[in-house]
UniProtKB/TrEMBL annotation:
Membrane topology, record value: Single-pass membrane protein
Gene Ontology cellular-component annotations: cytoplasm; membrane
Protein name: Glycosyltransferase family 92 protein
Keyword annotations: Glycosyltransferase, Membrane, Transferase, Transmembrane, Transmembrane helix
Family per similarity comment: Belongs to the glycosyltransferase 92 family.
Pfam family membership, one: Glyco_transf_92
Alphabetized PANTHER family for the sequence: GLYCOSYLTRANSFERASE FAMILY 92 PROTEIN
Main location: membrane
Compartments where located: Membrane
Enzyme Commission no: 2.4.1.-
GO molecular-function term, one example from the UniProt record: glycosyltransferase activity
Amino acid sequence: DTIHCRYFNHRWKEITPAYRTVVFPEFTAPCARREGAKYISLTDRHFGSYEFSVPITDRTNQVPTYYFSACLAPLYGAEPKWLLLAEFIEHHKIQGVKYFYVYVNELDEYNRTLLDDYVRSGEAEVIILRERFTKDERQWQECLTRARGHSRWVAMIDLDERLTPTEYSGTLSEYLQSVKIKRIFFYIFKHLLWFRSISNQTIAELSFRQQWILRNESAPEKYVNKGQVGLYMSMCLCLSGEQ
């Protein structure tokens, strides 16, 4: 599909002319660089109104801004999410995650308030999914494209998932920086163990085994006090221990 890149300066004043491009592959529209541009938008026509603009992220640096980030799967439904969001983000911050890409389809104002605090602190960005997006579409690919040049490693995680090393004493970020990948080469009757750093450019993905823990308690709708949060967390721990 043909589409137009619309450029705006730091005061949201449009910088003309628009740049004509195509959407390929899915979710990706290559746009030429434009001097002075701070925001960008995509429209069907090269003039007229536009829905919204987003800040331009510099992805030309050889060293990414963040070493380890996380993509949070799209948030749907009316279930209270503020406590799960806080737990999700704070848990993975302990594991060395420095930045979060959060995809939102449905989220009420109360839960969004918590998320906005992380955006203001520079720890997260929120991507609003428009009506045409469904749960079956490829948000993971979009997030991977978004993180390119911005994060060295990015984890794909659902809201109810927690990444935790079980046989490694450090954090996940430390694991990514220190682990060695073992390859075995056979020559005559001898073998050579070749250890390569995980920073090797040919290593693109790591997969981990999952452990399922049932959660049958609903999160509280609104924050009351620390005691309420502590009680909920202790109930979850007890339930986890019983499984």
